[in-house]
Specification:
With 481 residues, the protein is of the alpha+beta class. The protein has 16 helices and 10 strands. The N terminus is likely disordered.
Length: 481
C-alpha cells in the first residue's frame, strides 16, 4: 500500500466516526429527555426493586441502551486513535472511577437510610450489625476490577506482541505474506504501514537476489557453491577453497573449427548448438561445466558412475545431433575421464573473481585426450575411475595401456566399449582378452608375441585403430632389433 492510499483510508475512517457521532447524539438527547421515565419505573420495595415502566419508560430504555452501545463504540474509536500510553490511561480511567465509586457506596451504604438504600441493602444482604458481606462484596468488586484491568492491558498490548513477532520474522527473512496486519490504534497503523513498506522492500530485494542467483548459475553452477559451502555469489570471497575428490571429464569436439565449408560465424553457431546439447546432459547427471574450451568443455562430477553414464549419453546425443545436421559434416567427440583430488576455489582479484577448479588433473586430461585422439577412441578413463565404480556397476571396457604423467606417476587407461554401435562393439568385446594380453606383452617388450596378437585381432576387427597402432609399433620395435 502506498502513502496516498494509506492517507485516504485514514480520511475515510474519520468520516465514518463523524457519522457515528451524529447518530449517537440523535439517540442520546431524547434518552436524556425521557430519562425521568426510567427512574419513575424503578420503585424500591421490601425485597429489592419493582420495575414498572410505562410506554415512555420503555422507549427511554431502548434509546438509552442504543446510546450506551454507540457511546462504547465511539469511546473505543477514541482509544484506538491515541498513542499506547494515552490509550492505556484513558481505558483504565473509567474503570478506576467506577471501582472507586462502587467501593465508596459499599462503605457508606450502611449509613444511608432511604428507600433506595434499603432496597440495595436487601439485595446485597448487607446490614449494619455485620460487616462480613460488605467486605465480601468489596473483595468481589476488587477481583472483577483487577480481571478487567488485566484483560484491558492484554487487549491494549496485543499489537505490541504482533510487532515483536513480525520484526523477529523480518529479521530472520521468514515473512511470506503480502500484507502484514497488526491492528490496534492509530500509532500501530503507522507502524503497520512502515513494516509493510520494509517487507515489500525486503521481498523486492529478495526477488532481485533470486534473479541474480538464477543468472549467476548460468556462469557459476550451483553445484560449485555446494562444494564451497556457499549459498550465492555474494558469499564468495577471493581465496575461498576446498579440496575434494572429484571426477573430471574433458569433452573435445572435432570437425567444427577446421571445417573449410563453414564461415567463422557459422562455426561459432554450430559449436554453440552442440554445447547446448552437452551442458544440459552434464547437469542431468549431477555434474557442472567448469570451463568452456575453444572446442569443448571440462566438467566435474562427484561420482565416477555419474561421469561414465554421462559420457555414454553424450556420445549417443552427439550422434543424434549429427543425423539432424544432414547438410553439415559429422562432429566427432573425444571424452577423457580422470579421478582425483581437486581444489575448488575462487581465483583472480577483487575486481574479478573467478570460481574454478585448480589441479594437475586438467593438464593430465590434455595428455589423455592426446591418447584418445591418437587411438581414435570415443571414451577413455583411468584406473582410479574404474576402482571408484560400485561393485554392481556393469560396464564393458578394455585396458589400452599406461602413460607416464611424471617421473613418479603412471596412469593405467581403459576404453569404454559400450559407446560403440553393435557392429563395432561385438568384435571389440570378442577380442578384449587377447587385446589386453597384447598390450601387456608390448609393455613387457615381447614384441614378437605382441605382433602376432594384434595381427589376429585385425583380422576380426579391421577398423580397430588401437590394434593397428600397437601392430605398427611392435613392427617398428622388431625392425630396430
Amino acid at each position: 500500500m502506498n502513502t496516498k492510499m494509506y492517507l485516504a483510508k485514514n480520511r475515510n475512517m474519520k468520516k465514518s466516526t463523524k457519522i457515528l457521532l451524529i447518530i449517537y447524539i440523535i439517540f442520546l438527547i431524547p434518552s436524556i429527555v425521557l430519562g425521568g421515565s426510567i427512574f419513575q419505573g424503578i420503585k424500591p420495595a421490601e425485597n429489592g426493586f419493582i420495575f414498572d415502566f410505562d410506554v415512555k419508560g420503555i422507549i427511554a430504555l431502548v434509546l438509552m441502551g442504543i446510546s450506551i452501545i454507540l457511546g462504547f463504540i465511539l469511546y473505543f474509536k477514541f482509544l484506538v486513535s491515541l498513542t499506547v500510553d494515552k490509550m492505556l490511561f484513558f481505558s483504565i480511567l473509567p474503570l478506576i472511577i467506577f471501582y472507586g465509586v462502587s467501593v465508596f457506596l459499599l462503605a457508606e451504604l450502611n449509613y444511608l437510610d432511604n428507600d433506595t438504600a434499603n432496597s440495595l441493602k436487601t439485595i446485597l444482604n448487607i446490614s449494619s450489625e455485620s460487616l462480613y458481606n460488605t467486605i465480601l462484596w468489596t473483595v468481589l468488586v476488587s477481583i472483577v476490577f483487577i480481571v478487567i484491568i488485566f484483560f484491558t492491558f492484554i487487549f491494549a498490548c496485543r499489537p505490541l506482541n504482533k510487532v515483536e513477532h513480525i520484526i523477529s520474522r523480518l529479521g530472520d527473512g521468514k515473512v511470506k505474506q503480502d500484507r502484514l496486519t497488526i491492528g490496534g490504534g492509530k500509532q500501530f497503523q503507522v507502524i503497520e504501514h512502515g513494516l509493510n513498506k520494509i517487507n515489500n522492500n525486503y521481498k523486492e530485494k529478495d526477488n532481485s537476489l533470486k534473479k541474480v542467483n538464477l543468472e549467476t548459475q548460468k556462469f557459476i553452477p550451483k553445484q560449485f557453491f555446494k562444494f564451497l559451502g556457499k549459498n550465492n555469489i555474494t558469499e564468495l570471497e577471493l581465496g575461498n577453497q576446498i579440496t575434494k575428490k572429484a571426477c573430471t571429464m574433458s569433452v573435445k569436439l572435432e570437425g567444427i573449427k577446421d571445417n573449410n565449408m563453414l564461415s567463422l560465424e557459422e562455426s561459432f553457431q554450430m559449436l554453440n548448438s552442440y554445447l547446448n546439447v552437452i551442458a544440459p546432459i552434464v547437469r542431468k547427471f549431477g555434474g557442472f561445466v567448469d570451463k568452456y574450451l575453444g572446442s569443448g568443455i571440462i566438467a566435474v562430477f562427484n561420482k565416477s558412475e555419474n561421469a561414465i553414464n554421462c559420457a555414454q549419453v553424450l556420445v549417443r546425443a552427439i550422434e543424434v545431433k549429427n543425423r539432424q545436421n544432414k547438410t553439415l559434416p559429422n562432429v566427432q567427440q573425444r571424452i577423457s575421464i580422470i579421478s582425483g583430488d581437486v581444489i575448488f576455489g575462487v581465483v583472480g582479484e577483487e575486481e574479478r573473481k573467478i570460481p574454478t577448479i585448480v589441479s594437475d588433473i586438467t593438464s593430465d586430461l590434455e595428455k589423455l585426450d592426446e591418447i584418445c585422439k591418437l587411438m581414435g577412441m570415443k571414451v577413455i578413463f583411468t584406473k582410479m575411475v574404474l576402482d571408484d565404480l560400485p561393485l554392481n556397476y556393469r560396464i564393458n571396457y578394455r585396458f589400452i595401456g599406461s602413460i607416464n604423467i611424471s617421473e613418479n606417476r603412471e596412469i593405467m587407461l581403459y576404453e569404454n566399449l559400450d559407446v560403440y554401435p553393435r557392429d563395432i562393439f561385438l568384435p571389440l568385446k570378442r577380442t578384449k582378452k587377447i587385446f589386453e594380453k597384447g598390450v601387456i606383452d608390448y609393455n613387457n617388450q615381447n614384441y614378437n608375441e605382441c605382433l602376432d596378437i594384434f595381427t589376429s585381432i585385425l583380422r576380426i576387427a579391421p577398423n580397430d585403430k588401437a590394434s593397428y597402432i600397437y601392430f605398427n609399433k611392435s613392427k617398428e620395435k622388431i625392425d630396430r632389433l
